[in-house]
Write a structure and sequence with these properties.
Rossmann fold; five-stranded parallel beta sheet; about 180 residues; 9 helices
Amino acid sequence: MEATLSARIALIGLPGAGKSAVAPLLAARLGLSHVDLDERIEREEGVTIAELIRNRGEDAFRGIEARTLARALESAEGIVIACGGGIVGREENRERLTRAFVLWLDVRPETAAARLGSGGRDSRPLLEGGSAIDRLRSLEGARRDLYGRSAHATVDTEGRSAAEVADLAAGLWRAWDSSAS
């Protein structure tokens, strides 16, 4: 069963939760397009997210991220959006996300750090300043409540492949879409 073209699904969660890996798989299962907000920002800005944050600051990045989310949600086609881990930090983004079915891909900080590997720290400035696990624990502490309040459903990604998470997410979308119709 394919999703309706008006379907908008947003994936949220910590860095390393699997949002970028799951989005294209989920989109394929539902017959939708997908976008990774970080990839779109890098393409449009011509620099990596790390360079953008280091050179212009996190606040400038978050402004660009908010505008990119708004454009993705205004898309006329059905879409699965892989959001950046900090998307829920801004009130305007949480408000925008109410126009989508929001799935929180939940992951333990230790698992997220292992998934990101040693390269995760270099490409993610918000993980600098201590161990990656400690930084992810700090981010989780700051965002957990916001993820929970923003999400329609949660998928525990522990011990699951991206394909398994996409299958679960597709089932959650179909159940929600059926009940909302």
